[in-house]
Amino acid sequence: MPRVALAVAVIVGVPVVLVGYVSLVEAALRPLSARAASRLRPWLWLAPGCFFLAVFLVYPSIETIRLSFLGPDSKQPVGLANYVFLFTDGAMRIALRNNGFWLVGFTALTVFLGLLVAVLTDRVRYESVAKSIVFLPMAISFTAASVIWKFMFDYKPAGATQTGTLNAVLTLLLPGFQPQAWLVNSPLNNLFLIIASVWVWTGFCMVILSAALKGISGDVLEAARVDGANEWQVFRSVTLPLLAPTVAVAVTIMLVFALKTFDVVYVMTSGNFNTQIIAFSQYQQMFINRDFGHASAIGVLLLVAILPVLAFNLQRFRQQEAIR
pTM here? Predict the structure, then answer.
């Protein structure tokens, strides 16, 4: 009951507070001149958002940077020792290597498959059905998707009944095939973890790329065909360049997800068998080793890694605004 009461209070209270704040802002601006009110109104409207941004984003980031220069107990200064650990510890080097694999493999597969599905299903009668099937995994939580794929890759010794779908199918179709421990054998086990994530995220890339594809004028494509271009030439020289801004957006979103992937690795391997990644290493340092200095340094590393992606997005947004 306390949770129900809290939920009701939030559902009712947030709109009431929002309406009350807006009313107070407008009442405070009423005595001012129109020019002064127009200057102050945007800042007053942005004030609550800026407050929550400072409390829940800026302050934690600053505190994390501070803790990254302290020891495990967050009391003794250790200088750059925590950052040296990031690049000298064996487990961290494996995590950094695996994250590089995720950045390249996961991003390339999701964007490529999303674009492929968007193009192949465009303007066909069963388009909505096909896209719904591809997008369906996005409706499943990533933890549930990880459990599903853990059963897909399950392994039993040769001669035993194979409960894993992949081993069962291959054993049935290929006489003499020896069941494989897909999630144990390194480094291919990282590829199978990526496949599970690709299954979930391909639908997302398909949706945004399909929307951009629908926005391309049919007259432009028809003009290229009239000039003698075949379908591949139309796609390569007309469609793909027009889709480039949207492809860039999809790539940056997938890069960010690859950097902060956690749940798939946690559920399917718990970071064992050389499948550690940076976010999982941070979890281990924070909640298992109780080393807040190392965990904070890993958090700072993730923040620094994401900054170039954010800067690229801002630059593209400004370029698009300039064109408009």
Answer: 0.84
